[in-house]
Specification:
Aspartate Aminotransferase, domain 2; alpha/beta; pyridoxal phosphate; binds pyridoxal-5'-phosphate; 12 strands; three-stranded antiparallel β-sheet; globular; single chain; Aspartate Aminotransferase, domain 1; 360 residues; PyrdxlP-dep_Trfase_major; PyrdxlP-dep_Trfase_small; seven-stranded mixed β-sheet
Length: 360
């Protein structure tokens, strides 16, 4: 499938910076221009239909990732959703977080002075997690599905098994570097909550985020507030108590509407087909990178591979890569790249050609 034809990428640019921010299909840009005009057209009335519009985005989100409309909250970004979730959990819980995970996951746990342990991330991260959960009486596990620096992807079958072994463990995931690359069935995933920002692999631009929360977890969030009265005001009459925490105030229909365009794109093309395309592209890329010794040791031997790769080439090469049209980013000990539907084997070849030219 020629997914690239849906995007406007000039010939002299090799766009590999999806882990930073993803591209939007051309049709998204066209929709945003029209929406902006129609939305603020004085003679029109779509400004008055914001709640119905947001409800539609939730329905389509739920349909794609198998969660009910009541289980998904739409937020401005991942961090807002994550902080809201964390602040709603009962006190006295013990947390496990991963070393060097994204700051919006780890820092709120640290700054709120919650009781936590840090799990080492390495080649055998799942074993480390299992050992910690078995031995340290952990109540809540927080992790990113794909680690933002080294690209390590947690085995999602492991999450299902972990949940089966510890049904009371609350597992909260960050899907920002993952959702949009393959199908996800929330109800079956083992996660009690999983959320993210839409501007990377969901290709939906800034200003939109999502958090799916299971019924069991919803029942224990903001318990005192949930035991109290619902809002009496007419304008909030359809809001649940949890809506008033996750979705207070008016939401931006341009941002969430862009997320809806992405949901439609993924529905039309099929996340299963997108997954197949990316598996093939990754197999090619990882093979080429491995031959050249560019993969991190903790990534090399793993069967589960993400679309985010930290290439072990000197980050000092960043400016030269940019000068050659390679959009990427220095992170950790290397240069971070991402491979999404608008990337091809030619992009991988071009990247290798430029790195080898620079290092000659
Ligand atoms: C793992 C991960 N989670 C979340 C985010 C983004 O969260 P936010 O948009 O709230 O900053 C990023 C962005 O780099 C990320 O890498």
């Amino acid at each position: 499938m020629d997914y690239k034809s849906y995007f406007d990428i000039p010939d002299n640019i090799t766009y590999l910076n999806t882990p930073g921010n993803g591209l939007m299909p051309r049709a998204h840009h066209a929709w945003r221009r029209v929406w902006e005009m129609e939305f603020f057209d004085v003679t029109g009335d779509i400004r008055d239909q914001q709640p119905a519009f947001i409800a539609q985005v939730k329905r389509e989100f739920g349909a794609l990732f198998n969660c009910s409309t009541e289980q998904v909250y739409l937020t401005p970004n991942f961090s807002f959703a994550m902080y809201t979730l964390l602040d709603g959990l009962p006190s006295g819980l013990k947390y496990a977080i991963l070393e060097e995970d994204y700051p919006s996951l780890n820092f709120p746990v640290i700054s709120r002075q919650l009781d936590y342990v840090k799990i080492k991330v390495g080649h055998q991260v799942e074993e480390h997690i299992q050992y910690t959960i078995r031995n340290q009486h952990i109540d809540v596990l927080l992790l990113s599905v794909v680690q933002y620096i080294n690209g390590l992807m947690i085995d999602l079958n492991f999450i299902k098994k972990l949940k089966a072994e510890f049904p009371d463990l609350i597992i909260i995931g960050d899907a920002t570097q993952y959702l949009g690359t393959e199908p996800l069935n929330f109800k079956d995933s083992g996660f009690d909550a999983i959320g993210g920002s839409g501007y990377k692999w969901m290709m939906a631009g800034f200003g939109n985020g999502y958090m799916m929360v299971s019924d069991q977890l919803q029942a224990i969030l903001y318990q005192k507030a949930q035991a109290g009265p619902r809002p009496h005001e007419a304008m909030w009459s359809s809001k649940s108590i949890l809506d008033t925490f996750f979705e207070p105030g008016h939401q931006d229909t341009l941002s969430h509407g862009t997320l809806l365009r992405s949901l439609n794109f993924m529905q039309t093309h099929g996340l299963d087909h997108i997954q197949t395309y990316l598996i093939e592209l990754r197999a090619y890329a990882y093979g080429q990178f491995d031959e050249r010794g560019w993969l991190l040791p903790e990534i090399r031997g793993r069967n589960v591979r993400s679309s985010l790769v930290n290439l072990q080439i000197d980050p000092k090469n960043y400016d030269l890569l940019l000068a050659n049209g390679i959009k990427c980013f220095p992170r950790g000990t290397g240069i971070r790249i991402g491979l999404h539907v608008y990337n091809t084997q030619q992009d991988v070849d071009k990247l290798i050609e430029v790195i080898e030219k620079i290092n000659r």
